[in-house]
């Protein structure tokens, strides 16, 4: 995919996105709400043509060569449209009738752990069970390429882990997987590479390690009794910031910073209760993006309102 742009009327939802996914890879698209993940996926799946840019799947144009591409792909949509009166088995059977060489109904229900629900009507399934049925239908045609749009939304932790195992098995069998998710742990667990989308563009891409490299470690502690935040030492050149009543350091290397903090505390006779240390996480990166967007929004609003309103400041 090279320079993908996609607009809805006046609004440009995807603004020049480029990436390549290797065969057999699990690639996760992450991003804030409305970042353009589903739109990007829908172009890859051949539902929309790009407004600009080039997209190739198996070397084919997924919009122009839709039928050829779809035969080799599986799509798990965010909301599958089912007949509520049909049972799980009847639903799978009816989908199978359109696919040559489809997996057997029992096999596919076994894969997603829905054997016991085969005779249950769709209307009586829980949200997580419906997601599993969506997944069963997406893998019916033994796809080489599988698109999963927020596959574990609504699942309890156990069902989520079962789904992760299934996705890992499919990947081990050679399936290429493109995933969007809001669960950062899901991307951390499953993805070979991630791309983080923000406002229609890619803000960062690489392995989770690469995306987080250089973000440093985080040390947080309640400001010790009898101290002010201004009295806390600088660690590895970093001063603490106050967040939710805690002093928070972001340091290049956690271990030496921690040693220096302990030396300082011993010298002052201060107890370091409630100290927490952790590596940079995708969650921190997201919070930073959301923070940045918030600030940009506020600046944009101020900039736009001044000439229009003409109010004295
Ligand atoms: N059919 C449409 N018509 C007009 N605008 C749309 C349409 N579909 C999506 N958009 C807008 O395009 C932007 C990107 O939407 P998209 O669904 O691709 O984001 P997303 O990253 O998948 O978001 P989420 O995480 O909330 O599902 C949003 O601002 C959305 O409101």
TrEMBL record:
It is a peripheral membrane protein. GO terms for molecular function: ATP binding. It comes from the Bacteria. InterPro entries: AAA+_ATPase, ABC_transporter-like_ATP-bd, ABC_transporter-like_CS, ABC_transporter_ATP-binding, P-loop_NTPase. The keyword Nucleotide-binding applies. Residues 4-224 form the ABC transporter domain. The keyword Transport applies. PANTHER family: ABC TRANSPORTER ATP-BINDING PROTEIN. This is ABC transporter ATP-binding protein. It comes from Kitasatospora terrestris.
